[in-house]
Amino acid sequence: MLALSPAAKDLRRQGWRRLRRTPPTWAVRLATIPFLAALYLLLPLDGPTRVIAYPAFGIIGTVTILLAIHRRHPARLASWRLLAAAFTLLSLGDVTYTILALSGEVPYPSWPTSAISLATSA
């Protein structure tokens, strides 16, 4: 009888689970971006669907950065937190505009969006 190497024994013990690996999370997110962009472009120009869908991109970006900070513990934590704060303020501005757009006419310049813009640039 042939002696099996430790790797072959391990493969036999784990079966095919070892060979079937799921793709990394970053690759899945990177692959979904073109589909989300195409889906956004297919939304009707008139109506609230596009106005509501637009802030979702900023919110998804913010959540992704915060999850990456939590899971990866980067060496330069402060810079990633500043980037997450910038995305958060950008998303907050988009949500504010969406609320104003759905409630009626959007005044330009409006005080909520101007205040968020000034807070972002400060």
Characteristic key phrases:
0% strand, single chain, 122 residues, mainly alpha, elongated
Question: What does this protein look like?
Answer:
The chain has one domain (24-121). It is built from 5 helices and no strands. The chain has helices at 6-14, 25-42, 48-72, 77-103, 111-121. The longest helix has 27 residues, at 77-103. The model has no long low-confidence stretch (mean pLDDT 81).
Which structural class matches the secondary elements? mainly alpha
Which word captures the global form? elongated
* Cα-based radius of gyration, to the nearest Å: 23 Å
Tally of distinct domains: 1
Helix-strand blueprint:
Elements: H1 6-14, H2 25-42, H3 48-72, H4 77-103, H5 111-121
Care to give the gist of this entry?
With 122 residues, the chain is mainly α. Helices cover 74% and strands 0% of the residues. It is elongated.
